[in-house]
Amino acid sequence: MTRTFLTKAVVTASTAFALTVLPGATAAMCSGEHAPYSEAVATHGADTIAVGELHLFNRRALETPPNARNAGGFLSIYNYSSEPDRLISASSPIAERVELHTMTMENDVMRMRELEDGIELPANAQVDLEPGGLHVMFINLSQPFVEGEEVPVTLTFANGDEQEIVLPVRARTMEMPHGEGHESGDDHGSHH
Amino acid sequence: MRGLRYALWGLVGFVVIGMGAFATLSFIRSQAPDQSALYEGVDTVGGPFTLVRSDTGETVSETDFADKPMAIFFGFTYCPDVCPTTLFELATYLERLGPLADNIHPIMVTVDPERDTPEFLEQYVAAFSDDIIGLTGSREAIDEAIANYRVYARRVELDDGDYTMDHTASIFLMNTENQLVGTIAYQESPETALPKLERLARLGS
Q1: With B54 labelled, which of A27, A57, B87, B201 sits at a CA distance of 20 to 30 A?
Q2: Domain boundaries, given as residue ranges, for chain B
Q3: Is ipTM beyond 0.90?
Q4: Inter-chain CB proximity B84 and A108 less than 8 Å
């Protein structure tokens, strides 16, 4: 009886351990000297694009209001090289100009600045371009970003690599809390 | 074999400690003060304004909105990220509040009136919600509103003659006396933002 209980406890504990610790271990494998592309795809998803030793993934943009002039684009870049690199410029046929920007919140004030020297990509590290932080800034759009469409953008890196990619446009979504009498609709919100 | 058994018992201990820490944290959190409470009206934030409604083109002042509390924030349509996010979140909350949302005036004031004409601002705001009111006006009128709401807004030149605006990102929650009773920060959790708006709506009912 005790034995069975112990076995069960051990199995449960081992499962818990596997679920909590192993994904971390898998992620840690990424920080090795160089990971094969197949491993990067397994880690970062099937949409991963390899540009030399830079792996681009989690590419996306958010839909814009009909007459928006500017919009942000986002992706993550993992530099598997032992040398640092730099994203130095970007361009797109659907924007007059594309710049690399950072956004910060200081004392509740939003400040956005162009990064004249581009975005540094340290060796063996991941850099996330995401809402509220680093982003690719599309200026004077010739058309709005529409959910389901793709925004083409060409990225140029300091090592000379140039790569055209697309950013799939997603709808804005929001996770809403449940309970407290707000059950009047469980959709994640949409302004359509 | 004995080593393995110790290792497994170690694991059990690890999990038990983890569960204990989680329970403690949950308890502490449940004892914390309500993060979504509104406060007594602060009258150093908020004041008069005379601006143009983007939907009707009418000139309006704060007295035209005195019948209900306001959820008011400052932004601009050339804003790539923060303003559309704030508009989208506010629109989503209003939808979620249902009929209660009718007790609030949701307002976006542009900090960039040179580019945000009433027509331009209206198209932008209406893309998110029919209920959110856009306000613009002359540079002087906007500057007066910015000063009275203690908002920070500054024009920053970009290359090629373009510019962007640094600005305060929070939504101000104002009671019917036009006094500040709370704020919703950029990307604040819906867990606190939604109850704040609900409380604001109840002030107006």
Answers
A1: B201
A2: 1-32, 50-203
A3: no
A4: no
Quickly list DSSP for B18-66: HHHHHHHHHHHHHHS--TT---S-BTTS----EEEETTT--EEEGGGGT
Task: Write the pLDDT tens digit of every residue in A133-156.
Answer: 999 999 999 999 999 999 999 999
Degrees to nearest 5, angle at CA A141 with A137 and A146: 95
**Neighbour count for residue A42 (Cβ, 10 Å):** 14
Is residue A85 domain-resident? yes
For an interface test with A, give the residue of B96, B157, B160 to mutate (most A CBs within 10 A): B96
- Cross-chain residue pair B14–A13, CB shorter than 8 Å: yes
Judged by CB atoms closer than 8 Å, whether chains meet at A70 and B78 is answered as yes
Residues B127, A66: C-beta atoms closer than 8 Å: yes
- Up-side HSE of residue B120: CA atoms within 13 Å toward CB? 15
What's the structural domain count of chain A? Answer: 1
* pLDDT value at residue A3: 47
Given a contact cutoff of 8 angstroms between Cβ atoms, the answer to whether A55 and A158 are in contact is: no
Provide the residue range defining the domain that includes A142: 49-170
Residue of B nearest to A12 (CA): B12
Is residue A187 domain-resident?
no
CA distance A17 to A11: 10
**CATH number at B50-203:** 3.40.30.10
